[in-house]
Amino acid sequence: MSDVLLLALLVAAIAIGWLLGRWESGRFRAPPQPPRGSLPKDYFVGLNYLLNEQPDRAIETFTQALEVNSDTVETHIALGNLYRSRGEADRAVRIHQNLLARPALTPSQSGQVQLELSRDFLNLGLLDRAERLLLSLQKSHVEDAQKLAGKRLLVDLFEREKEWAQALEAAQPQLVRQDADIRRAAAHWHCELAHRHRCDNSPSLARKALRQALQTDERCIRANWMLGQLEWDIGQYRNAARFWQRVPEQDLGFTAIVLEPLRDAYRLLDDDDGWWQFLEKQLQHNPQTTVVMMAADTLRHRQGTEVACAFVSEQLREHPSLRGVDYLMDLYLDDSDPEERDRLELLKQHTRQLLSIRPRHRCQRCGFGAEQLQWQCPRCRSWGTCKPVTGLEGE
Question: What is residue 382's three-state secondary structure?
Answer without folding.
Answer: coil
